[in-house]
Amino acid sequence: MAAIMKLLALFSLLNLCVASRVMPTSLVKDDQNQQLLKYHKGTLLHGKISVNIIWYGKFKPSQRAIVADFITSLSPSTAAQSKPSVAAWWKMTEKYYHIASSKTPSSLSLFLGKQIVDDSYSIGKSLSQKQIVQLASKGEQLNAINVVLTASDVGVDGFCVNRCGYHGSKSTVVKGKNNKFAYIWVGNSETQCPGYCAWPFHQPTYGPQSPPLVAPNNDIGLDGIILSLSGLLAGTATNPFGNGFYQGAAEAPLEAATACPGVYAKGAYPGYAGDLLVDPTTGASYNAHSANGRKYLLPAIYDPATSKCSTLV
After folding, report:
1. Taking every pair of C-alpha atoms in the chain, what is the biggest distance, in angstroms?
2. Burial track 53-63 (b if 16+ CB lie within 10 A, e otherwise)
3. How far apart are CA 285 and CA 275, in angstroms?
């Protein structure tokens, strides 16, 4: 616990914002014997949940495939033959479900749902949070996480200033019944702030300077999206409606992945992502394999059983 709090303090100095709703402005220290992330007794996402993607702006088919493959690979039924796998990374979130209900823990199964392409910039190139929710509402309204991904030439309120992405939920009515769906937004930072939202694949904007790593899919923007999207998915599963697992202010919480900022492998410290795997052919750094042969870099997940940041390598 003490080690994690030290990492959080150090990374706040770096002013990094990787896969968080908003940049935490303060940290509340719990007692050493308590969990860093408190369970607020709310509902976690459970059952079969579709992950629907709204592509806003120009994205190449190859870029859309990078994200689609990642989502598909979260399911243990499509686990990669090579280890460690994306599915093994996602399995680390299961411990939260056992804590939430130790007698009859629920489970979550994600699958790739609809992909909606809006490459005509139907509501412009400068978006508010309200417009992000408007776009997210184009996806499924029931048992869904709707992911809005904005292209590199789209500005979003707060993007590159204090956030790289965020998640939330929206109330809706489906067949006469009140319901909520979860949503996530992440922006492509390649041309706007790669040192802020795509580190370690770009020189960091602040803090210790080290050579950037080679992105596993040779696309700083999309590999940066995966960095944020993966952490936000973990936060959405374990704190979908603002009353699940988190620490600090509900408006700017530390969650399952953001409790371990900048940690991607063992040996990580500020300015160093950790001792990652390296592709001998491309020189790319990664820590997870997909079901279709791609490689990804995924963040550490805070382990509520050990009070430590858990990594695949």
Report:
1. 56
2. bbbbbebeeeb
3. 9
Element (H, E) at 165: strand 165-174
78 close to 87: Cβ distance less than 8 angstroms: yes
| Torsion angle in degrees (nearest 10) through CA of 299, 296, 13, 24 | -50
Q: How far apart are CA 113 and CA 52, in angstroms?
A: 5
Report yes or no: 184 and 19 within 8 Å, Cβ to Cβ: no
**Phi, psi dihedral angles at 76 (to 5 degrees):** -65, -20
Confidence of residue 221 (pLDDT cuts 50, 70, 90): very high
Q: Are 21 and 253 in contact (CB under 8 A)?
A: yes
**DSSP string over 173-209:** EETTEEEEEEEEEEE--TTT-HHHHSTTSS--SSSS-
Burial 212-250 (b: 16+ CB within 10 A, else e): bbbbbbebbbbbbbbbbbbbbbbbbbbbbbeebbbbbee
Report pLDDT digits (tens) over 246-269: 999 888 899 999 999 999 999 999
Cα 219 from Cα 63, distance rounded (Å): 8
Measured CA to CA in angstroms, residue 96 lies from 21, 193, 196 at distances of: 20, 33, 29
DSSP of 103-150: SS---EEEEEEEEEEETT-TT-SEE-HHHHHHHHTTS-SSSEEEEEEE
pLDDT tens string 72-129: 999 887 766 789 999 999 999 999 999 988 777 788 999 999 999 999 999 999 999 9
Q: What is the Cα–Cα distance from 50 to 34, expressed in whole angstroms? A: 34
pLDDT computed for residue 1 by the predictor: 53
* Residue 304 near residue 256, CB atoms below 8 Å: no
Residue 1 CA: distances (Å) to CA of 10, 233, 312: 14, 23, 19
| Contact (CB, 8 A) for 307 and 1 | yes
